Amino acid sequence: MPDPRIGLIDRRMKGINNIIAVSSGKGGVGKSLIASTIALTLAREGHRVGLFDLDFTSPSTHVILGAKDLQPEERKGIIPPQVQGFKYMSIVYYSGDYASPLRGADISNALIELLAITRWNNLDFLIIDMPPGISDATLDIVRLIKRVKFLIVTTPSQLAFETVRKLINLLNELKIPIIGVIENMKMKESSFVSQQVEGRGIAFLGETPFDNELEEAIGNVNKLLETGFGKKLAEIVANNMKT
Amino acid sequence: MHEWALAEAVISTVSQIAGKERLKEVTEVRIKVGELQQVELDILKFALSQLETPKFRNAKFNIETVSAELKCRVCGYKWIFGKEGLNKDVAEAIHFVPEIAHAYVKCPECGSPDFEILQGRGIWLESVKGVK
């Protein structure tokens, strides 16, 4: 017999115009900061936005957003609370300060559960902060959310791009749309990433700088949007994300 | 209530199965509910009755609870999950996302959070019967 939760996911996603998974394959490249800042920027532009932190074992977007003491509302499922002008869902509502040491099958089950019970209703954009790695969460999102598009984050490092290249290849094989690649933590002039990306027929969306002020802006969204990183990302959003 | 989302999932999936198998009417749905998720059966039954479509007019929902059996991956100890001793917030967190048990529940024998859920996790369909 099929898992009854799976049949519900399409219905939960029905009212969402754009579903964007911010992914990398590599950890530590700034996915959560980029996903959170994109959600903030789109919400400030007046769009209806949701942010779903899918990094179940190490969620961090709540720290970036300064989101504290929040709980979803129970109403025939769960309704994510509003944070900084958008709907925000994270496993941290349930795990609190405790580590959640989940293996692959557990991650899949938790992901299916939350996709099935979370009622986003109508949104222009749902931004998904993906965990690092090309494993269960990536495969599940591709399997369960038919209209998902990927936005890939890398750093200028060849080490990061080595994994990103594999993610691009996998998504291409699976025929999953890629919005493009953002090169984060840019420190000096180099065309290595843009050439590699465009050489594969993928859009290079732009670069965001390594920003010394960023750490001090964690938990303060106004400050975050005013950093060089925040302003550059706002340009990328304005040029590439339309409803 | 979370039970409403689970009921919606059951009705939606059974409707799809009925469509595929060309059932004019669903007569019996057997559902198993794992105790880890601490589903309130009365609310689930009420939600099922409210969400059912005309195809379910004469359907009987047989709901069976299954104890949640956990097995430690480190020492192999097996035990049955019970919410006794868990505070209300933790029990509720496990109710919404059963895997969150890994954040709060430890093996009673060796203290490891690395256990597998052998049975009794959530809700699943056992069988669907109907008239063609």
Structure explained in plain terms:
The complex is a heterodimer of chains A (243) and B (132). Chain A is of the alpha/beta class. Chain A contains 10 helices and 10 strands. In chain A, 40% of the residues lie in helices and 22% in strands. In chain A, the strands form 2 sheets. Chain A has an 8-stranded mixed β-sheet with strand order 5-6-2-7-1-8-9-10, with helices on both faces. Chain A has a two-stranded antiparallel ribbon with strand order 3-4. The radius of gyration of chain A is 17 Å and the shape is globular. The N and C termini of chain A lie far apart (38 Å). The mean pLDDT of chain A is 95. With 132 residues, chain B is an alpha+beta fold. The longest helix of chain B is centred in the first third of the chain and has 19 residues, at 2-20. Chain B contains 4 helices and 6 strands. The mean pLDDT of chain B is 94. In chain B, strands 2-1-6 form a 3-stranded mixed β-sheet, covered by helices on one side. Chain B has a 3-stranded antiparallel β-sheet with strand order 4-3-5, with no helix packed on it. Chain B starts with a helix and ends with a strand. Helix content of chain B is 33%, strand content 29%. The A-B interface holds A 1-8, 11, 56, 74-78, 91, 93-96, 98-103, 106-107, 109-110, 113-114, 116-117, 119 and B 1-2, 4-6, 8-10, 12-14, 16-17, 93, 96-100, 102-104, 113-114, 116-117, 121-128.
Short structural description:
The complex is a heterodimer of chains A (about 240) and B (about 130). By secondary structure, chain A is an alpha/beta fold. Chain A is about 40% helix and about 20% strand.
Average pLDDT rating of chain B: 94
What's the alpha carbon Rg of chain B, rounded to whole Å? 17 Å
Order of helices and strands of chain A: HEHEHEEEEHHEHEHEHEHH
**Spans of chain B with pLDDT under 50 lasting ≥5 residues?**
none
Q: Please give the largest β-sheet of chain B.
A: 3 strands, mixed
Bin the strand percentage of chain B.
25-35%
Which percent band covers the strand fraction of chain A?
15-25%
Q: What is the typical, i.e. mean, pLDDT of chain A?
A: 95
Roughly how many Å apart are the termini of chain A?
38 Å
Tally of strands of chain B: 6
> Helical segment tally of chain A?
10
Q: In one word, what is the shape of chain A? A: globular
- As a percent range, the share of helical residues of chain B equals 25-40%
> Which consecutive residue ranges of chain A, at least 5 long each, have pLDDT under 50?
none
How far from one another are the termini of chain B?
34 Å
Structural class of chain A: alpha/beta
Order of strands across the main sheet of chain B: 2-1-6
Briefly note the structural class of the backbone of chain B. Answer: alpha+beta
The shape of chain B, in one word, is elongated
* Quaternary organisation: heterodimer
